[in-house]
Design goal:
Elements lengths: L29 H10 L1 H18 L22 E4 H25 L4 H4 L5 H5 L21 E8 L5 E7 L6 H14 L1 H6 L6 H14 L8 E4 L8 H11 L3 E2 L4 E4 L2 E6 L2 E5 L1 E4 L8 H4 L10 H6 L4 E3 L11 H13 L11 E3 L3 H9 L4 E5 L9 E2 L5 H13 L4 E5 L5 E6 L2 E16 L2 E4 L4 E4 L15 E8 L14 H11 L5 H31 L7 H15 L16 H9 L7 H14 L6 H20 L9 H21 L4 H26 L12 H7 L3 H8 L5 H10 L7 H16 L9 H14 L3 H5 L9 H25 L18
Parallel strand pairs: 1-19, 4-5, 4-9, 9-10
Antiparallel strand pairs: 2-3, 2-16, 6-7, 7-8, 11-14, 12-13, 12-14, 15-16, 16-17, 16-18, 18-19
Helix pairs in contact: 2-6, 6-9, 16-17, 16-18, 16-19, 16-21, 16-22, 16-23, 17-22, 19-20, 20-21, 22-26, 22-29, 26-27, 27-29
Length: 843
């Protein structure tokens, strides 16, 4: 395809989505290519950079391995995959038919099993597969649909025919990424999207919400929860994003418990009955009583509650059997058995090694096939035999022959190709289209589009995110403009759901994460300020005395908890820069700044669904700031290293300010604030103890008060208030007693008392709770103290003993308050443990 502005020449022999066999642009691509040609490559590249920036700011990621300190931004190509309405109509009908057939198969396999009785499939296809859960036999969802949600992976062969290469029926992923792709592309190419009349996705999600509400037949406003495997899995962004979009609380297995024949959500206000679970976890980790594999995971007893009708799960437990690729071999016969006709959409040619004739074919054509295990599992990937050397082929064939029932072979179809922006040129990339269907009415609703994944280069056959590929938005061109819908309906269902959500009590796990999010944010900020102050004092034109320098540096170790540090006998106080560098950047050192920043990311990922886009953007700034610091801090030791700490401090301050201005004053915000206030009070008390109690100074003048004030962001206020030297009594008045100073200990104590009272609300009893008792005791201790006594030196030791006693008492009370808060509100469940059964251990 030749244009005035750029050239795209297909670099392959497969079917091309844009250019036909005569080298002409396909009809439905005429207008989009005209628009992009008018933009020019430079404008497209700028929009590509904008799209990447938006994805990064949204926190859109796909992160195998759970590396929290590295940003794995979702990869979106600017050019969409475009299909015409006429072609899509055929695909849509075929996908709907396939979903209906899979629904019939699922009902049959856990019911009459007519497929086995009529010898349509061999018994081994069912009974040898781990996805068949015998404990789920006979369990039925209300209504005619057993399969609620379904995804199919499609490739287009060289002759233009779409083929199914796999089905996902347990917890299909990709809808969230498809939605994010659409959101981003609409922002960076609004005119093209609008004028191209692209089918919208919102109606699909609306049907999804309707179906989940229908599954609960006992309530007008059912509690539907979104069950995720955890915050640190590869699809954690998608789970948080979808839960927010659909309006469901995001929960983990440990947030739920089985009691009295029902499934209950554990929250601060007690237990709440769950009606419907939208699960995004596999069968193997759902109920350890059934799978006997998910030690420490899952919800024990969940299957029995489902059988008793105490809760509805979508998709139902046991639906993983439909992912067995052996079914693809028998799908034509299954379709004729149930539907009396052939399927509109064929599967890729499949041979089951458990069949003697098929095994002989596989052995004869081994080098040309794709080998798959019949049971999907982490780390278990499909293998293209042609990519293996002779030794690897022999090893793989030996595995297949040892357990032929566990393997299938499929034709290694070369998928169609589509252009992708590659620098300033367009390169061909192979693609796989993941389509989605959801139960609706008497049939299924198909998402008009889907998630298109592309390979990392033209010749690759591995088109998954783990291999570095990218993604595209999928556009179905409508014949006329559509009416834009919202996922929320102005109906009774929507009003009731919104009323329920407003009063929704958060799980203890979420409160725990928010509390520690606040604590670690404050801990990182205080540590950064103190290290910056240390660098400033080391390079000051008014240097500290050797003894004051020793006290300051030892205080850095004590306050950050990075022992032994400067408390070691071998500590170098004359050249402390490298130790300060390690305190900042060593991720593996508990208490280091990098360790605290990683803890912030860890806590933020656990409550991502509660954070605004701006807060997520700041969290990403912190992640990027860590990487920048690691790359540049060593080279800056000789030239103002404290300057490199400023951007991180600014990001942490912005995070604190945004939480004050953007978060609703509910329990979530109050627990985050309590964590921040408690941490600030404890770090202030520790800093004052280590730097001002000791005998350093002359009379009332205390030189170490200057760095203390600087690290507590109170130096300018002190100078404006007192206009005198650094006097201990004045410093203590500002840092301990001043209610108007947001850095003082008294300010933190009064804030904590106010938050605790609000959290208790109308449930406040006659007796004080232990956490409130600790805070009030610390407040009273501080109020009863006299400044002149605190500033007085002991004649024998020269130290400020009264100040030391006060700070010690405050530190004890704050520590006790922290423990009381944790005991009262937070989730300390260790998770279910395996039961050892005599004679049934592993061999």
């Amino acid at each position: 395809m030749l244009t005035d502005r750029f050239v795209y020449t297909p670099q392959h022999e497969q079917y091309d989505e844009v250019v036909d066999q005569d080298g002409q642009i396909r009809e439905h691509w005429h207008y989009p290519m005209r628009v992009m040609n008018a933009m020019g490559v430079d404008a497209l590249l700028e929009r590509q950079r904008t799209a990447k920036r938006i994805l990064r700011d949204d926190g859109a990621s796909y992160s195998p391995g759970g590396q929290l300190n590295v940003s794995h931004t979702w990869n979106l190509d600017l050019l969409p995959l475009i299909l015409s309405s006429q072609e899509w109509e055929g695909i849509e009908n075929a996908l709907r038919e396939r979903a209906e057939l899979l629904n019939l198969i699922l009902s049959d396999l856990y019911g009459e099993r007519s497929l086995i009785l009529n010898k349509v499939i061999p018994p081994a296809v069912l009974y040898s597969h781990p996805g068949f859960l015998r404990a789920c036999d006979g369990i039925r969802l209300p209504g005619e649909h057993q399969l609620i949600f379904h995804a199919s992976d499609l490739v287009r062969s060289a002759n233009g025919e779409w083929l199914v290469i796999g089905d996902r029926t347990q917890a299909p992923s990709g809808t969230g990424y498809a939605l994010e792709n659409r959101t981003v592309l609409r922002r960076v190419m609004p005119s093209l999207f609008r004028d191209a009349h692209v089918h919208r996705l919102s109606n699909f999600f609306l049907q999804w919400r309707r179906k989940l509400a229908e599954l609960s037949q006992t309530k007008d406003a059912p509690l539907v929860v979104y069950l995720t495997q955890g915050a640190f899995k590869e699809n954690s962004f998608e789970d948080a994003y979808l839960a927010n979009y659909l309006g469901y609380p995001l929960v983990q297995s440990r947030d739920l418990t089985v009691r009295k024949g029902g499934l209950w959500l554990k929250s601060l206000e007690g237990l709440r009955r769950v009606d419907v679970v939208l699960r995004r976890i596999d069968d193997s980790v759902a109920d350890p009583v059934v799978s006997r594999q998910s030690f420490g995971q899952g919800i024990p007893g969940l299957t029995e509650v489902v059988r008793a009708g105490g809760v509805v799960i979508a998709n139902p437990l046991g639906s993983g059997i439909l992912e067995n690729p052996v079914l693809a071999k028998y799908m034509p016969a299954i379709a004729r058995h149930f539907l009396g006709r052939d399927l509109r959409l064929n599967s890729v040619p499949t041979w089951w090694c458990g069949d003697a004739a098929d095994l002989e074919y596989v052995k004869a054509h081994f080098a040309d096939l794709l080998i798959r295990h019949t049971c999907r599992a982490p780390g278990r990937h499909s293998v293209f035999v042609a990519e293996l050397n002779a030794e690897e082929r022999a090893s793989l064939l030996a595995k297949v022959l040892a357990n032929p029932v566990d393997y299938v072979a499929q034709s290694a179809v070369r998928p169609s190709q589509t252009p992708a922006l590659d620098g300033k040129v367009f390169s061909s990339r192979p693609l796989v289209l993941r389509s989605f269907t959801v139960a609706s009415g008497s049939s299924y609703s198909v998402m008009p589009g889907g998630l298109t994944q592309i390979g990392s280069h033209t010749d690759t056959q591995h088109i998954v995110s783990q291999y570095g590929g990218g993604s595209k938005d999928t556009w179905i061109i409508a014949s006329e403009p559509e009416v834009e819908d919202s996922v929320f309906e102005p109906e009774k269902l929507a009003r009731q759901s919104q009323a329920l959500d407003r009063n929704f009590s958060l799980p203890s796990r979420v409160i725990d994460n928010l509390f520690w999010f606040g604590r670690y944010a404050e801990r990182a900020e205080s540590g950064l300020r103190l290290v910056r102050t240390a660098f400033e004092e080391l390079n000051s034109i008014e240097p500290l005395s050797p003894e004051s320098r020793r006290v300051l540096l030892c205080s850095v170790t004590h306050v950050t908890g990075t022992y032994p540090g400067f408390t070691a006998k071998t500590a170098d106080f004359n050249a402390p820069e490298h130790e300060l560098l390690d305190i900042v950047s060593n991720r593996s050192r508990p208490g280091s700044i990098a360790h605290c920043l990683e803890a912030i990311l860890h806590s933020a990922d656990g409550v991502k669904e509660l954070l605004s886009n701006d807060m997520l953007r700041l969290v990403n700034d912190i992640r990027d700031g860590m990487e920048f610091l690691n790359k540049n801090l060593k080279s800056s030791l000789q030239a103002a290293p404290d300057e490199l700490l400023d951007p991180l401090i600014t990001s942490l301050l912005a995070l604190s300010g945004l939480s004050q201005e953007s978060m609703v004053r509910g329990r979530a915000w109050r627990f985050m604030e309590m964590g921040r206030r408690l941490e600030r009070a404890q770090k202030t008390v520790e800093l004052l103890t280590r730097m001002l109690v000791v005998n350093v100074g002359d009379g009332q003048n205390v030189p170490l008060l200057k760095p203390v004030l600087a690290s507590l962001e109170s130096r300018i206020v002190y100078k404006r208030y007192y206009r005198s030297g650094y006097r201990l009594d004045k410093g203590m008045e500002l840092l301990l007693f001043d209610r108007e100073n947001p850095r003082s200990v008294m300010f933190q104590l009064e804030s904590l008392r106010s938050h605790l009272e609000e959290v208790l609300g109308p449930n406040k009893g006659i007796q004080l709770t232990e956490d409130m008792r600790c805070i009030l005791r610390a407040t009273n201790t501080l109020l009863m103290s006299r400044l002149d006594e605190l500033a007085a030196r002991d004649e024998a030791s020269g130290e400020h003993l009264k100040l030391g006693e006060l700070l010690s008492q405050l530190g004890s009370d704050l520590k006790a308050a922290s423990q009381a808060l944790a005991d009262r509100y937070f989730d300390h469940a260790a998770g279910p443990q395996p039961v050892e059964m005599s004679g049934r251990g592993e061999t």
